[in-house]
Amino acid sequence: MKFVDVILPLPLGNTFTYGVPDEWSNLVQIGMRVIVPFGKKKMYTGIICLIHSNPPKHYKAKEIIYLLDEKPILRFPQLKFWEWISTYYQAYIGDVFKAAVPSGLKIESETQVRLNPDFDKELVLSEKEYSIVDTLADGKIKRVQELNQIVDQRNTMPILKILLEKGIVEISEELTEKYRPKVETFVRLTENAASEERLKEIFAAMNRAKKQLELLMKYLDYSKILSRNTTIEISKKELLEKSGATDSVLKGLVDKGVLEFYKKEVGRLDLSELRTEKPYPLADFQQKGLNEIKSQFLQNQVVLLHGITSSGKTEIYVHLIRQALEDKKQVLYLVPEIALTTQLTSRLKRIFGNKLGIYHSKFSDAERVEIWDNLLNNKGYEVIIGVRSSIFLPFRQLGLIIIDEEHESSYKQFDPSPRYHARNAGIVLASMHGAKTLLGTATPAIESYYNAKTGKYGLVELTTRFREMELPEIIVADTKDAYKRKQMEGHFTPILKEKIEKALSNHEQIILFQNRRGYAPYLECTSCAYVPKCVNCDVSLTVHKYLNKLTCHYCGYTDKIPEICPACNTPNLVNRGFGTEQIEQEVVEFFPQARAIRMDLDTTRSKKSYEKIIGDFESGDIDILIGTQMVTKGLDFERVSLVGILNADNMLHFPDFRAHERAFHLMAQVSGRAGRKNKRGTVILQTSNPKHPIIEQVLNNDYTAMYNMQRDERKQFRYPPYYRLIKITLRHRDFKVLDKAAAEMAKNMFKVFGERVLGPNIPMVSRIQNLYIKNILLKLELNASPDQAKNIIQTISNNILTTAGYKSVRISLDVDPL
Ligand code: ADP
Ligand code: ZN
Predict the structure, then answer these.
(1) Cα angle: 351, vertex 356, 362; to 5 degrees
(2) Which of 62, 232, 552, 645 could bridge to 534 as Cys pair (CB 3.0-4.6 Å)?
(3) Which ligand is nearest to the CA of 283?
(4) Residue 14 and residue 7: Cα distance in Å, rounded?
(5) What is the pLDDT of residue 268?
(6) How far apart are CA 648 and CA 683, in angstroms?
(7) Are strands 302-307 and 436-441 parallel, antiparallel or unpaired?
């Protein structure tokens, strides 16, 4: 008998061996999906990763229930890449599978529930139980997931369990395929009508049915059936819309046997914009940069393109992509988050037309499946622009990976595992394909610049802006001084206010950046210093005035804004700090003539809202754009003459070794948005600390000074790029248990690694969703073997987890944490 080893979408490090029944034994291939039983009653979709003839030694293998595919859904080197991610980032292979493949391709045994028609109607039910019974009263089967939505409960399982015990509901486990392709109705001539002669007869016979005749003529016209050999397919919807005919006229033609309907699968992705444009010719300095990149690629697998804002990096990418396509290779263009892609994708769409596929974070699962399918079956996409998870797509043959804004921290996946960095993983993926990687940014990550400077990567620098536009003038506004002189109005210094007024009167646009959302980061009682906190997490609640609520940015908990202090009953609660919402309110108050809009996580939750805000700003319907770091990203607006940074201080005073680097990135990037086309822009940078070295480096646009200073500090304090970090996080409900387990873990690590172990530390946010948190940090020399260290940590961690009392502690590893 044949056996297959299967990866299951569960947090498990092993693969599992199953027998292959005869009917599939000649069909199974690595990378195909199978449905297998697992545990007592569950069924999962697994991926075949090995085929062999060795039965397991210690147990009898179960058999696969079903072979789902006729050909593999993975391509070389995807499995190899999964294994790399799993080993390097210390993630279970099952978790990698889960992250890599859209859920639509992982059929689940979803529990289905229905009412037992014979249940005892006399039973007394709780309110929650009743609400479920009520929902099921129509007798239909519902999935647990649907029930959760209808009943508005996060988890109805515990209630269902009770109802099940009481014999009120029945549960059936059934396999359902989640993804169904979208099907549309199309119209065509029946076989009977499909000849010129027959059509003539039909026309003659239809003399009196004028409307039907008209519609038929129009159909023939649109479908070009008479003028060409191939027919253009036309959907029912399109035919009715274009012709203006009614449903019943069309039905008349169908009843007469002239036209017929047929169903067809259609793509959900918008391929309507197929017109293609030529890329712009490159300016001399850009052409020089492009040539340098190409020649560096001869020796280096990775090249860093360090080009100041507005140097036209995108145009250089476009030329490289065209080259790769000519070589019949595919291209992956990674962007940090969807926020960046609106302007970029429409530009690329105009150039690459339907060769361009977009894979972004707000796509539905069905849309993700479609992209997967398109790539797998070579249906046309040769360039994919996408967020970090697009490194998992089934590419045929990558020639180039572009990683735009490579310094962005959103390339790193935090939770859940696998905690990969898409830039670093992308470089590995590229090498598996024999492809090149181009990192691009105006403000390289310290690590990347270090790699370039030490010869690990190639380096190309662009110091000219397109059309030789000057960099903006940056003016530092001292808020401490302005407060002392009582010149502040709200959170605006006099100079910021004056510049805004001037820009408005010149009909220029303004971007205001504040790195906090909400109205105020927290409330504080001026009598007793009470600060309202989240009940689940160790963080203060953020004031959202518009919602009239306090909310937790970690778990989503919300509460009313109290009118009096719950601790001392005085009405002395005041807002501390400020977020974008408060700035918006002040803008409305101070500049009533201006049209302002806010862009942050709260105003861009839906798929199109971001695009709408950008669109309105681009078309000039908005004067002032207020936002969080979302507004600092690669946006390109022609009429922005002024950028205001409301408060640099909270970026600088953050207890993290990367805080200063990040503050520089953010301020340099947002400054780059000012004055991009016609005239030199202005940036007002408000801070109480004008002499801070980072402020001076931003002011002088001096990346090198920032780099040198950070590099020296990193070296001195033993941080990347000189050392490799591994963060071990322990979580538990009970602080005492956590405390002891963490101390034990650190002690055991210290025995092996000595001074390289830091902690356990209590992180800034020390409790999230009712779990207390402690961290241990390991700093490894670059020449030490990371694999060996990881194995030792896993052994120590397993020992903790098998110690009585510590079994429910959760331990996770983060390799190269950010
Ligand atoms: P960066 O990504 O380096 O900040 P962009 O690629 O966004 O810069 O380019 C800045 C602006 O200059 C964009 O509006 C872009 O269309 C324009 N631009 C850059 N290079 C060219 C070129 N060679 N021809 C025409 N327009 C260009
Ligand atoms: Zn919370």
Answers:
(1) 120
(2) 552
(3) 1
(4) 8
(5) 56
(6) 12
(7) parallel
513-527 b/e (C-beta count within 10 Å ≥ 16 → b): bbbbbbbbbbbbbee
101-134 burial string, b = 16+ CB within 10 Å, else e?
Answer: bbbbbbbbbebbbebeeeeeeeeebeeebebbbe
Beta-ladder partners of 536 = none
Name which residue sits closest to atom 23 of ligand 1, judged by CA.
Answer: 282
Determine the Cα–Cα distance for residues 666 and 717; give it in Å rounded to an integer.
24
Q: Tally the residues of the chain.
A: 818
Q: Where are the alpha helices (DSSP H) in 353-476?
A: 365-376, 422-433, 446-453
Return the closest-CA partner of residue 491 out of 631, 646, 622.
646
Q: Which two tokens stand for residue 699?
A: 């002011």
Nearest residue (by CA) to ligand 1, atom 27, is: 312
Residue 99's contacts (CB-CB under 8 Å, 6 or more residues apart) are: 389, 392, 413, 416, 418
How far does residue 474's CA lie from ligand 1's centre (Å)?
Answer: 22
Which DSSP category does 489 fall into? Answer: B
Longest CA span, the chain: 97
Distance of CA 45 to the CA centre of its chain: 24
Secondary structure (DSSP) of 320-350: HHHHHHHTT-EEEEE-S-GGGHHHHHHHHHH
What integer pLDDT is reported at residue 394 of this predicted model? 97
Other C-beta atoms closer than 10 Å to the C-beta of 352 total: 23
Q: Residue 599: which residues within 8 A CB-CB, separation 6 or more?
A: 610, 613, 625, 626, 627, 628, 630, 631
pLDDT score, position 109: 47
Structure tokens at 291: 């040539």
Q: Measured in angstroms, how far is the CA atom of residue 310 from the centroid of ligand 1?
A: 6
- Along the chain (818 residues), what's the average pLDDT of each consecutive run of 10 residues? 93 92 94 85 84 92 86 95 96 94 66 74 81 85 76 64 74 48 80 82 83 89 67 82 88 90 69 63 96 97 94 94 96 82 80 88 74 91 94 97 94 93 98 98 96 97 87 92 92 96 94 86 82 82 84 83 89 85 93 91 74 84 89 77 91 82 92 78 93 94 96 92 95 94 95 92 83 92 90 94 92 93
Ligand 1, residues at Cβ distance < 6 Å: 280, 282-283, 286, 307, 309-315, 466, 634, 636
- Which distant-in-sequence residues (6+ apart) come within 8 Å of 312 by Cβ? 282, 283, 286, 462, 466
Q: Which ligand is nearest to the CA of 537?
A: 2
Output the CA 111–ligand 2 centroid distance in Å: 30
Question: Beta partners for 265?
Answer: 183
Nearest ligand, CA of residue 768? 2
* Structure-token match 């476009």, residue found: 318
CB of 818 closer than 8 Å to CB of 412: yes
